[in-house]
Specification:
The protein has 1 helix and 8 strands, in the order αββββββββ. The protein has about 140 residues and is mainly β. It has an 8-stranded antiparallel barrel. It has one helix at about 1-5, and strands at about 15-25, 30-40, 45-60, 60-75, 85-95, 100-110, 115-125, 130-140.
């Protein structure tokens, strides 16, 4: 559903869309670092569903990580100030270790209502999970006025 909504020419049911690039790292045994592609739809003013997939290294071997997360935004209307959010969901990792994980994280993003901005997260999901990235956002015309 996320992929369909992101690829459709018009937002589905007035939902905004987001695309991004980032890096996700987990401090565990073995540690993992992946470059990732991120996509999301805002399902309401305060909630968003996201998916990401990335490739990188773990124990000097090729590895990948995919995630599906639900987000709750604490200040979704801020255009200029940074806003916090909570996220939770699942991740799948393959490489030296093939395993699924529950993910819980606290995030901070620049201008949640702005057209683009950085993001940073810290939490758990396959060990201590850290992520940074940049997101681009598209809001339906009625919501940006």
């Amino acid at each position: 559903m996320i992929a369909l909504a992101l690829l459709s020419p018009a937002p589905v049911l007035g939902q905004s869309r987001e695309l991004g690039l980032g890096v996700i790292g987990t401090l565990s045994d073995p540690a993992l670092v992946v470059g990732s592609v991120y996509g999301a739809i805002r399902t309401s003013g305060r909630t968003r569903l996201s998916g990401s997939v990335g490739a990188g290294v773990s124990s000097n071997e090729l590895a990948w990580r995919g995630e599906l997360l639900g987000h709750f935004l604490l200040s979704p209307e801020d255009r200029r100030k940074a806003g916090f959010y909570f996220a939770g969901g699942v991740a799948m990792v393959d490489g030296p270790v093939r395993r699924g994980y529950l993910v819980l994280t606290l995030g901070l993003e620049a201008g949640p209502r702005g057209k683009s901005g950085w993001s940073a997260e810290a939490g758990v999901g396959g060990g201590l999970r850290l992520a940074v990235g940049h997101r681009w956002r598209w809001f339906p015309a009625l919501q940006t006025q």
